[in-house]
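Consider the tokenized backbone below.
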């Protein structure tokens, strides 16, 4: 019998900066659980990344556990995937330092997330915010991940990780796998319900801009009813109709219907009917997640055990890569 080819490896991460939004779910997390059958998956709560913006320590600790519980609720199965918290695998930081010495100031200066977040927090443009993509590259390269399922906003960071990996491989010898991005076909960039020019973000100061995975049915309906649209009144996707197009994208991602089919479905109907329909499919999608989330959060021992086992399993792989890298760059054994 022919030997089965080794499964490709996946790594992705999410910051515990708040409860996940519908954007996080459609753009990233939903795909994580779908990929578990076909790939060897590692999923991480990126709590070190969260420090680039000032956090309340107690809230960060709580949100880290809640994020892990939400990932379990969204279908990450610890029997199939390695689920862990970034800070519990210290090798990420060690590799990050080596990679930061292979990354140019100019490259980091071009990152749009750095520019956006510096503008948003002008009082705290810290070095971590600037070198953040080096830590993200370390997260990925330390596992030699083949694929990285993320929303479209992370593609630039991924491209940087590839460039850094390539440079390291050229300067020393082939070491790192060059990772590929993986964006979903619909919903790779879910937009703010209030300012559709921006992405939906869990750290938005306006709660009406996002749907949280924990929002109850009334809240979901109310937020969609308030969503910014336009004055045309036709359910039609177009560049000059970003609000309606965004709602159509959400509806499409959750029902599998194409934009043309959605346009036909709501032809001649106003935005009121359409918004209620979008809210309905979202509420249905969130119901099982919320039930499972409540169950997992109530079982502290289970969550702690999953995270401890995850950190140990991830640490074994990461440790091997780090030892190899240290040897190649000339650190004492
Ligand atoms: P923050 O507001 O703290 O920056 P965030 O909501 O942008 O957080 P991240 O933790 O940075 O979330 O991202 C987790 C994953 O979710 C990433 O893969 C990211 O690409 C994806 N993602 C985030 N926002 C969206 C969105 N609006 N649409 C699609 N995918 C998204
Ligand atoms: N930077 C990502 C979160 C993140 C990540 C990663 C994603 C940290 N490390 C490694 C994929 C792979 C974000 O802010 N969304």
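A designed sequence for it:
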């Amino acid at each position: 019998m022919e030997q089965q080819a080794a499964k490709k490896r996946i790594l992705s991460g999410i910051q515990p900066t708040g409860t996940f939004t519908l954007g996080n779910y459609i753009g990233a997390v939903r795909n994580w659980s779908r990929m578990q059958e076909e790939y060897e998956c590692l999923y991480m709560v990126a709590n070190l990344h969260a420090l680039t913006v000032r956090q309340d320590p107690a809230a960060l600790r709580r949100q880290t556990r809640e994020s892990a519980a939400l990932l379990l609720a969204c279908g990450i199965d610890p029997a199939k995937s390695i689920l862990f918290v970034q800070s519990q695998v210290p090798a990420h930081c060690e590799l990050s330092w080596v990679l930061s010495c292979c990354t140019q100031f100019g490259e980091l200066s071009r990152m749009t997330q750095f520019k956006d977040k510096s503008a948003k927090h002008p009082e705290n443009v810290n070095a971590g915010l600037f070198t953040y993509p080096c830590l993200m590259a370390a997260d990925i390269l330390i596992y030699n991940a083949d694929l990285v399922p993320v929303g479209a906003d992370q593609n630039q960071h991924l491209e940087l990780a590839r460039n850094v990996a390539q440079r390291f491989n050229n300067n020393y010898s082939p070491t790192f796998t060059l990772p590929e991005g993986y964006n979903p076909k619909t919903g790779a960039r879910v937009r703010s319900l209030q300012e559709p020019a921006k992405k939906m973000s869990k750290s938005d100061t306006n709660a009406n801009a996002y749907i949280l995975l924990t929002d109850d049915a009334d809240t979901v309906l109310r937020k969609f009813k308030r969503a910014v649209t336009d004055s045309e009144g036709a359910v039609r996707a177009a560049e000059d109709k970003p609000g309606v197009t965004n709602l159509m994208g959400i509806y499409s991602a959750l029902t599998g219907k194409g934009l043309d089919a959605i346009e036909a479905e709501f032809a001649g109907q106003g935005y009121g009917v359409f918004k209620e329909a979008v809210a309905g499919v979202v509420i249905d999608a969130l119901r099982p997640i919320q039930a499972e989330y409540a169950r997992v959060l109530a079982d502290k021992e289970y969550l702690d055990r999953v995270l401890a086992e995850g950190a140990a399993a991830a640490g074994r792989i990461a440790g091997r890569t780090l030892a190899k890298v240290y040897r190649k760059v000339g650190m004492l054994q």
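The chain has a mean pLDDT of 96.
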